[in-house]
Amino acid sequence: MKFVDLAQIEVEAGNGGNGCVSFHREKFVPKGGPDGGDGGNGGNVVFLANAQLHTLQDIRYRKKYKAENGHSGEGNNCSGKKGHDTVIQVPVGTLIRDRETDLILADMLEDGQDVVIAKGGNGGWGNQHFATPTNRVPRFAKPGLPGEIRQLELELKILADVGLVGLPNAGKSTLLSVLSAARPKIANYPFTTLVPNLGIVRYGDYRSFVMADIPGLIEGAHSGKGLGVQFLRHIQRTRVLVFLIDVNETDIPLCYEMLKKELMLYDPELLSKPRIVCVSKIDTAPEIEVPPLPGKEALIPISSASRKNLDKLINTIVKYLQE
Length: 323
Ligand SMILES: Nc1nc2c(ncn2[C@@H]2O[C@H](COP(=O)(O)OP(=O)(O)OP(=O)(O)O)[C@@H](O)[C@H]2O)c(=O)[nH]1
Ligand SMILES: [Mg+2]
Description:
By secondary structure, this protein is α/β, with parallel strands linked by helices. The chain has two domains: 6-156, GTP1/OBG domain (Spo0b-associated Gtp-binding Protein, Chain: A, Distorted Sandwich); 162-322, 3-Layer(aba) Sandwich (Rossmann fold). It contains five helices and 14 strands. The protein has helices spanning 57-61, 172-179, 229-235, 252-266, 310-322, and strands at residues 6-12, 45-50, 64-66, 86-91, 94-98, 104-108, 114-118, 149-156, 162-166, 197-203, 207-213, 240-246, 275-280, 298-301. The strands form three sheets. A six-stranded mixed β-sheet has the order 10-11-9-12-13-14, sandwiched between helices. The protein has a five-stranded mixed β-sheet with strand order 3-1-8-5-6. The longest helix has 15 residues, at 252-266. The radius of gyration is 29 Å and the shape is rod-shaped. Bound molecules: guanosine-5'-triphosphate and magnesium ion. Magnesium ion (MG) binds at residues 172-173, 184, 192-193, 213. Residues 166, 168-174, 186-188, 190-193, 215-216, 280-281, 283-284, 303-305 line the site of guanosine-5'-triphosphate.
């Protein structure tokens, strides 16, 4: 299944039902007063965050969502029924933006969170409300008001505490698979990972954090080369970044600079997050002395295969998360 993390849809709330013009009619009761009921309110379009969902695929499939109109009022002071709400379920982490104003209407951060995004129109008043001493037979009622219509852009930004950043084939998915129960695809070729994977890393007795493995970055990623750029947005919300650089890279500091540059060009904020640099797969080159990096970043040589320094990595991540 294709990973869909952007969707454009139109939502339309229900129109209010019209108020009713009616007069009380009863045998032996002359000139009954106005008894036209009010129209019901239109249904709202409501968004509901659901932790079981992981893509916007199903939402994008449909372009337009409409809530039910309110029913018209009726005689005998009967109000019209309210229109049913239309509820759109989205994954946790979905941002809802109004395409016309560019304003963010909601950020669906918690499972079960619900937000009215398009409000149904109010029902119109029936003529029962309009009798006055000078007009006891009001032959008019108010029409219902139209429901709100909005053009929306939905964007899914997965929520993870830690993001893994590295060239393709650096060992990101492998690291996620040994630290968590996640089972991402792993293979010895670049661009194995096509969509972000999340895993829960447990440590201590009951504690955990969420780690995201995103597709590998290559030079020019910020301008759309390779796969990584469309997923960089997912690490915008992480709190700590872990860079992974294969120990077999010919120039590790250069590789590190390239990764930093790509993040900087995409969003300079990414570089203000605490980061840890790992030289990966050191089981394959135990003799190599990793040169110190410029700057003060923690540098940890690791091996997912032999689990070397994985505890140290987790402790460092936790230390940064707690700061
Ligand atoms: N020897 C050894 N091999 C490793 C280690 N970590 C990863 N590998 C191998 O490196 C290759 C790439 O690993 P992946 O985890 O798929 O790399 P990735 O960074 O997720 O790659 P993309 O998804 O393409 O960006 C696989 O063949 C892994 O088995 C390690 O610690 N030691
Ligand atoms: Mg991968």
